[in-house]
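Your task:
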Amino acid sequence: MKLLMIAGPPSAGKTALVKQIIKKLMDSIKIVFLKIDVVKAYEDIELKKEFKIVTKKFYSGDLCPDHAGVMVMADALEWAEGNSADLLIVESAGLCLRCAPYLNQGLGIVVLSSISGIHAPEKMGAMVSLADIAVITKIDLVSQAEREVLIQKIREVHPGVILLETNALQGTSLHRLYDLISNSKDIDKETLMLKGNPPLGTCTICVGKKEIGWKHHFGVIQKLDGHVAEYLFRGE
């Protein structure tokens, strides 16, 4: 089974891209789709109705969606295999810019909207820097000069990424993406793991402590006048 992990900020065009992939490949391989979101998602219903494929969704709730993805991925692989899938597409809400859902196998795609601003790639951390492929959408809505600046910014963050530009609603210029997916290797569940390093650890805010100010918290803390890379540990 092949695996495709898709992430990106809200309204970037992730689901429009998924639709183009399904439309192109569904006649040659069996595709199943998993959506991971925080509170509400309708993509699974939409794709099931339009393409008659098997879909599922999972709400992360209090967890970061990328953390939740790690928790449920083994179950998701069993679910996909149980449905005789040739390709599992996982679309993550991708809201945690410190994390990334990409794994050491399969393909990781970040979807970026060309109208999100030229500095957007620099603000997205591992979501961009660990992706195998960056798909820039809505290219018909900006000038060629703006597109070139955005591409340069992406390359500064991730020099080795494969860059593709498209209007995902029409599916223009995606032939290379279809080939990359079709030629990707099957995954080995026994050696599947996160591609990057997760954050340093769970903080007391994550477990529900509401007081403000670092003096009220334990574990990894930061001060306003500290350097961005200067992490302090405060024990209980």
Summary: The beta strands are 2-7, 31-37, 54-59, 87-92, 107-113, 133-137, 162-165, 219-221, 232-234.
